[in-house]
Amino acid sequence: MMDISTTLLGQMAIAWAVLCAVSSYFLARKKVRVPVLAAVLGLFMSLVPPFALVYMAVLAFLRPEPRPSQVSV
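Given the sequence above, the corresponding structure tokens read:
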């Protein structure tokens, strides 16, 4: 029988949460106005892995938000 250490399980959960938060931030950079908020939401969604995967899929398929141009003529 294979035993899983609770320490290892906790470390994997923390690594999953950080991975979800970072990938949510990078997916949301050009698609939402506040990408940090999207990263925090991704961190909380990582508590339930299927929700996190669906959240990142939604972020991936969002259309990029139009940005005001820096050069005005």
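The chain has three helices and no strands. Try to locate this feature in the token string yourself.
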